[in-house]
Amino acid sequence: MQRFELKRHVSRRLAQGRRLxxxxxxxxxxxxxxxxxxxxxxxxxATHAVSDPASARYGKFLSAEEVRRLVAPGYQDTDAVVAWxxxxxxxxxxxxxxxxxxxxxxxxxxxSRALDAPIGRFxxxxxxxxxxxxxxxxxxxxxxxxxxxxxxxRGIAGLNDLPAARFFPPPLxxxxxxxxxxxxxxxxxxxxxxxxxxxxxxxxxxxxxSSSHDGAGERIGILEFGGGYSPADFETFCRTYMLPxxxxxxxxxxxxxxxxxGKTGDADVEVALDMDWVRAAAPAAAIDLYWTxxxxxxxxxxxxxxxDLPENRR
Length: 314
Prior knowledge:
The chain is α+β, with helices and mostly antiparallel strands. It has eight helices and twelve strands. Strands 4-5-3-9 form a four-stranded antiparallel sheet, with helices on both faces. A three-stranded antiparallel sheet has the order 2-6-7. Helix 6 (231-240) runs parallel beside helix 7. It is globular. It starts with a strand and ends in a 6-residue tail after the last helix. The model is unreliable at 182-186 (pLDDT under 50).
């Protein structure tokens, strides 16, 4: 059988790790096989058109059903991929994300054999990756799939369990913004930080006193890779600046949950900033927090869920 290599599936971070050996044959992996959309060019054109002021489609965003019609592969294509995976001894679930994602489970031995790619166990220095604890699994060579599926399969997520969002030590961090860290004295909050009014002025956000600019009727989703929030802390922020405190929903993606840790949770600060400033910019909008596993397949799980959401959650 002729094979086709899926490029760029080996993490560059393996160079910073130490190989401990091969994965245990019985280690369980959960993968997401990603399929090409039915009409990739039409999808790109539609995405560009709604953002182009010169287009007649400008601002006329696609409905969920319109997006699904553009991306959903044909049933023959999904059936062919499922048949290959099952024949390789892997377990599959019903396709999700408008049939663009097939969830796969199997042992490291079965996955390695199906993809003709070894899977190893790696340890990483905590100085480089402070959030990585214990050995991690990772594919050591780009996976191979049947050549007959090359035009259908675009990639495979889950071939390592390294964090997707990660801490950058100071030498690797992006350059800091040159914007002043504090506003004028009359614009400071209780601890000296920016107030919602100062942020509105800095970014030219219209006065939210008007119902046409307060986000009413909108639902804003926030993707969170770890961390959590304290309802009491969020309510304190809202009360301080006379903002609504309610209308916050939480959605678990693949079992992830609010993981608030207070003073020991670095990621909690990011979650608080996301929530506080979304509420400040659009006080009447609903907020949905999507708690997502901090692995690359978490991105896929989140996007797949969005594609399948009912219209009233968008």
